[in-house]
Amino acid sequence: MAKEKENVCCGGMNTLVLACSGASNVGQVSNSVMVELDKKGIGSGYCLAGLGADLSGFIESTKAARTLLIDGCPIGCGKKIFEKNGLEPTKYFVITEFDIEKKHAFDKLVEETNQAMDCIVASL
Ligand code: SF4
């Protein structure tokens, strides 16, 4: 792969959607919401891990875009990654604020994603 392409993902869409994608129901709901927002054309899913890895292409692309950041819980890993890079999301969401309890269980992801999507889409 060409050097300049190594840390760039997904091109330069105007709105980027980033999710913590954590290993809990709410982390996975954040990821599913990112996918659904992308499928609806509301924004382009983007790799939060690229920012966490301090890759300059991801940081510059994120700085240049409108951003929707979705964390699963109040620990706020995504928000901390943004702050570490001097970034402020345009809109910030925490899945547990939508009356979804954090669990290490993945049996209700479809229902929980629909519940979170309703709240997020209504606030855009
Ligand atoms: S914000 Fe919460 S759910 Fe997301 S990665 Fe961090 S601890 Fe996990």
Features:
124 residues; 4 strands; globular; disordered N terminus; binds iron/sulfur cluster
Describe the structure.
It is a single chain. With 124 residues, this protein is α/β, with parallel strands linked by helices. The protein has one domain. The protein is built from five helices and four strands. Strand 1 (15-19), helix 1 and strand 2 form a beta-alpha-beta unit. Helix 1 crosses helix 5. It is globular, with a radius of gyration of 14 Å. The protein starts with 14 loop residues before the first strand and ends with a helix. Mean pLDDT is 91; it is low at 1-8. Iron/sulfur cluster is lined by residues 20, 22, 24, 26-27, 71-73, 75-77.
Short account of what is shown:
The longest helix is centred in the first third of the chain and has 15 residues, at 25-39. 40% of the residues lie in helices and 14% in strands.
Kindly provide the radius of gyration, computed on alpha-carbon positions and rounded to a whole number of angstroms: 14 Å
Q: What is the N-to-C succession of helices and strands?
A: EHEHHEHEH
Structural shape: globular
Overall pLDDT: 91
Overall structural domain count: 1
Number of helices: 5
Largest sheet data: 4 strands, parallel
- Largest sheet strand order: 2-1-3-4
Helix content: 40-55%
Total strand segments: 4
Percent range for β-strand residues: 5-15%
Low-confidence stretches: 1-8
Secondary-structure class: alpha/beta
Ends distance: 37 Å
Bound molecules: iron/sulfur cluster
